[in-house]
Amino acid sequence: QVQLVESGGGLVQAGDSLRLSCAASELSFSRYSMGWFRQAPGKEREIVATISRSGGSTSYADSVKGRFTISRDSAKNTVYLQMNSLKAEDTAVYYCAAQSFLMTSARGVDYWGQGTQVTVSS
Q1: Burial code of 9-25, b = ≥16 C-beta within 10 A, e = fewer?
Q2: Beta-strand pair 58-60/46-51
Q3: Is the sign of the CA dihedral 65, 12, 16, 122 positive or negative?
Q4: Residues 6+ positions from 75 with CB-CB distance below 8 Å
Q5: In angstroms, rounded to a whole number, what is the distance separating the alpha carbons of residues 59 and 27?
Q6: Closest Cα to residue 97, out of 43, 16, 39?
Q7: Beta strand 116-121 with 10-13: parallel, antiparallel or unpaired?
Q8: Residue 101 — very low, low, confident or very high, per pLDDT cuts 50/70/90?
Q9: Residue 102: per-residue pLDDT
Q10: Which residues have C-beta within 8 Å of that of residue 16, sequence separation ≥ 6?
Q11: pLDDT at residue 39 is higher than 90
């Protein structure tokens, strides 16, 4: 059974950094685009960042460009989200996702992680 397990969330102050990790098991990792979504209270789940199967192409939500970096390690079957200069508005549950084709929205996601809470205080 495919599992995506997130880790690295926590409580930090504005301006701090966190690195989220998502470890995939029983997944043909290189055959899936990977991404991170987040969902804040009262808001829809939104794409934060995506990375192609090869790792050669990435995309970011406008709200995180220049602050967040997504990467993947094929040897470890793991995708990361480095989050710098965190803001209070980044507070949300962050979800790891896998999709067998171009990741454009939550509707097409094949597999989801359980989520990890990121809370940024002012």
Answers
A1: beebeeeeebebbbbbe
A2: antiparallel
A3: positive
A4: none
A5: 22
A6: 39
A7: parallel
A8: confident
A9: 83
A10: 86, 120
A11: yes
